[in-house]
Design a protein that fits this description.
The protein has no helices and no strands. By secondary structure, the protein is largely without helices or strands.
Length: 23
């Protein structure tokens, strides 16, 4: 997924605050 901030991230209940890949 890509968060609202445009950060490439893993699955998260809230994309806008998703944790970047690597968590």
């Amino acid at each position: 997924e890509v968060s609202g901030a445009g950060i490439r991230c893993a699955e998260s209940p809230t994309p806008e605050t998703a944790t970047p890949v690597g968590w």
